Amino acid sequence: MPAFEPEQLENLTFDEIEPGQSARLTRTLRLQDIQLFAVASGDLNPTHLDSDYARDVGFSGVVAHSMWGGTLVSSLLGSRFPGPGTVYRSQNLRFLAPLSLGDTLTVTITCIDKHAASRCITMRCEGANQDGLQIFEGEAEVIAPAEKVRKPVPSLPEITVNDQQHRYGKLLALTDGLAPVRIAVAWPCSEDSLLGPLQARDEGLVVPVLVGPRQRIHALAEKFGADLSGVEIVDAEFEADAAKAASALARDGRVGALMKGSLHTDTFMGAVIARDAGLRTGRRVSHVFVADVPTYPRPLLITDAAINIEPILEEKVDILQNAIELAHAMGIKLPRVAILSAVEMVTTKIRSTFEAAALCKMGDRGQITGALLDGPLAFDNAISIIAARAKGIESEVAGRADILLVPDMEAGNMLAKQLHYLAGALLAGVVLGAKVPIVLTSRADSAESRSVSCAIAQLLSHRKPAAY
Q1: What is the CATH code for 282-433?
Q2: Architecture of the domain defined by 8-152
Q3: Smallest Cα–Cα separation from 311: which of 432, 408, 403?
Q4: pTM of the predicted structure, to 2 decimals
């Protein structure tokens, strides 16, 4: 988005500018601004691109490249004050504080000196955030134009950031150095449900044990050019039989994780949580989507979007604790949990608001541990610092959430799939609370989504939360 949108570009000539005259523009820092600046400049300092690293070195998250503010000075000088025809001679800026995602930077340039012989103008340059904190200060020197220029604003190409391969690699990197986990795949009888675990095998994440009709699996592998050499296949004629056989492998300790193939979720999970399957624990089973969204600086854990339809308060405690322990396994030391509703105020008219308030108090009393909780929060306030500030919400969680606890399965499922199909999120799905991690993906999920889900299962099998 341009810093301003005039109908035409019009400059001020040297003779029209007087000392004390100034111009300003305001811009809010977005993740795309940081990414595009990194691409254009080649500055790959991890404080700008890796939120975990940025936190480790003392920032609240990724911060802007200091010279991003400098480019806004250039934007003002070249487009408005003095504008077209300006020649940039020098710039001297002192950077005083970092600029974080969601911060609003106001840049002001002021004429402080003129030299008629050379048409040189010295400008004082200042940048301050929404709280009045000075981000940078300094001076610039330009040669102002001698003649008036009016030109239409040029059309610029629309630029989007597509970093899915980078995000995919970053999620896989969570398991660097870990041994692959044996995983039973129930009914791998579609292209993606077969190729996903095989891709995860090739990436060193899992050792798949395929459970389903042997001849059909071999035929699919031949059709799609998949290599089944060395892969164990447990023959099962029907979907329900495959689900039970896979569960038995986990119960007997022959595999360390389970994975749903192309069978129905009800059939698969029914076999897993059956009382005689031997996989239940004292913790309620729940599902977490790990969503890596291009426009958000860190993975979002969304729960529960697949298992618990309308969980009550006590069930939400387990659902939340499962997600917190997954966040810990992913290296998020103190995850921020946003408990979602439609509004931010507690009201008896909306059950999820007073349940959110109760969960926060349970967190205060140690009934939920390992995270910062806040709620109720609407979705915009949970993930956007700008939205939270607009509504006057002061919170360590608002705008910075790592975990989104949704009111019910319908809300969670729609949210996760909207992020995937409309925002380009990379989704991984895992079920927690059983004796082994369970990869639960949609039949429409890609091989990449299944592979990342396997990476999460591998991670959990090595860093088992308390529920396992």
Answers
A1: 3.40.718.10
A2: Roll (3.10)
A3: 408
A4: 0.76
